[in-house]
Amino acid sequence: MAGFYTARKSSTRRSKPAAARGDRAEQSRGLLHDLDLLLDKAYRDFRLKEPEKKEFVLKGIEQVDKALQLKPDYMEALTYKNLLLRLQANLEKDQAKQSALLKEADKLRDQAMELQKKQAAGIK
After folding, report:
1. Burial of 81 from C-beta contacts in 10 A (0-12 / 13-18 / 19+)
2. Which domains does the chain have, with CATH numbers?
3. End-to-end CA distance of the chain, in Å?
4. Of 80, 72, 65, nearest to 24 (Cα)?
5. At 23, phi and psi to the nearest 5?
6. Other C-beta atoms within 10 Å of 16: how many?
7. Burial (Cβ within 10 Å: 0-12, 13-18, ≥19) of residue 3
8. Can you give the pTM of this predicted structure?
């Protein structure tokens, strides 16, 4: 029985949060935690009006940009931003802005694919 309490006591100890440790990769992953929900809400919730969808998309882009500031080669963040920019382009009425958003999304997609190839090859 004493072993149970000892094990439980030690398992309740937590290490410092990622921000306190200064682990930039962990911080960037933490910023993307709710991003999946924002993306899903903006993409699938047909009850939302366009301004509300745009608000979710812009919040998502803001989160992704913070993650990319911490870790510019974060493949998942690049992929999320690519998807969010495509959603933003779909909501855009101005053809020139829409085209610019899609061009940026394509660039991010290509960058993420290149990172994925490097990771598969074991190159950092």
Report:
1. buried
2. 22-118 (1.25.40.10)
3. 48
4. 72
5. -80, 100
6. 9
7. exposed
8. 0.72
